[in-house]
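step: validate -> pass
step: tokenize input -> pass
step: predict -> running
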Amino acid sequence: MPTPQIPNISDNASLEEMRDCYIGMQRYLSYLLSTLDTLNISRLDAKVIIAESITAGKLAADSVQTENLQAGAITTEKLEAGAVTAEKITVDELSAISADLGTITAGLIQSIQIFGSYIATRNGEYPRSEMSDTDDLFAAYKDASNFVKIQPSIAGAPAIRFTSNDIVIGSINSALGDLEIWAPDVLRLTAPQVQVQNLYQIYSRDDELSLGDILDEIRDQISNKADIIHTHSVTIPNHNHGNPDNATSGGGTFTTS
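step: predict -> pass
step: emit ->
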């Protein structure tokens, strides 16, 4: 900033000298005020700045650097609504932004870890699919009473459970160490053809028998009956069909085995 050159007058100056000095000071001060700009100011004392006299529109681009701002000097109530936009925010982690994010609409979330959340394809409506931290489950709902759930532990093992009209109608689980398809009443297999690896290995847990055991028993019974020999006689009376010449025709005793 240029140093003002104020004219000096002696203690014994004449009236004419004092008048010339006053005129000169007036002209010089007018010059300073008309040429005052940011290049002439190196520092302003905040005590002489009137509140709200400096606005964003009066600041040159990049004229205010973050290292020149006092910590805590800018607070949310001092920011104009909409003044901070997404392209002006750069952070390494969202945790740097201390706030409730509220409702996030659209956009892409990629390569991120989310814990302890509830995610659904619809908000309170059906049909919908959901992933929930409650029971750590996945579910697909037709409505509140008809749905299928994938649960991590039923009787200590993962399972898929089917519910119809609020009643569990079946599950697929490994609670007994084997893969089990369970139903409380009827289990239907509907297909033009049902294939199994080995027919003999179809097993009844209640009877403790396989289909192979039953078939082998039937085969043995048939085989044993085939070795038994039985002989008996059959007597047929004579019948001549009303012809006396055939009095002894067609009758007799016969042995068969």
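step: describe -> The longest strand covers residues 146-154.
step: cleanup -> pass
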